[in-house]
Amino acid sequence: MTLFEVLERFQTMDRRWVFLGMAISIVAPMLFPFNLGFKVDERVQSLYDTIETLPPGSTVLVSADFDPASLPELEPFFRANLEHLFRRDLKVVVLSLWESAPPVVKPLLRRVAERHDKAYGTDYVFLGFKTGKELAIKGIGENIFKTFPEDIEGTKITSLPIMQGFKQAKDFPLLVSVSAGFPGTKEYVLQIQGQYDLTMISACTAVSAPDYIPFYKAGQLRGLSGGMPGSAQYEKLVFPDGPLPGERLLATQAVNVLNLGHLYIIGLIILGNVAWLLTRPRAAAGGSA
Length: 289
Known about the structure:
- This protein is α/β, with parallel strands linked by helices.
- The protein has helices at 3-11, 15-31, 42-52, 71-87, 102-115, 134-142, 144-147, 185-196, 209-217, 227-238, 250-288, and strands spanning 59-65, 91-96, 124-129, 175-179, 200-204, 223-226.
């Protein structure tokens, strides 16, 4: 079979071979993990550096506003963020404005905290879910004790050592918004960030990132992680030597799947165009004959 015959058959091959190739591109990196390599975006680097500048012992407020549907994009960031905060010996106060978040957030928070031997109520606390959307955010800005009178375990938060001296959002040196949509980062910026001049960083889904970039450029967000690529870049900064024993860098692995899939599609486009260009003169000659 000549080269021209191969190229002609390539242009008319059964589309199921294309689907099979894509399936292999997706499954292969999951079965045999590898790293194609990627750069860290300026916005993600700034997010990381903002946390790095906090003095040990500082208390960070984290708003975990995501659900099971957004886990592939945001759980890797949330996991890496907790690891980063506890590794820096920072105290963590977590709350949520999404009712579907607590079943996901609570076990993950406890697992990472236990790995670092952190004590509940002293080193970290989960205040749970609060309804109200923008009203709840305004309440967080004005009086957290009134908005979240009890933590998720039913304990009065006024009795928790970690909450002493932290009545309002502005009392925290940093607010981390892990946002899958409404209410989330945008509402925090509009409702309380500007009013109280809060130092704030955000991790959001890929579809929301373009809307939040102006907040970053305006200085209202000190850092921004967008979608799975942003989570993978943050993992690269937090885990420079690779995953911890028994753990996986989920976003990094997923990005490698995406990258290989994109390379596969790009390769098909290039080969298709090359095949068409090389076989066109012969097809034209055959048609004229």
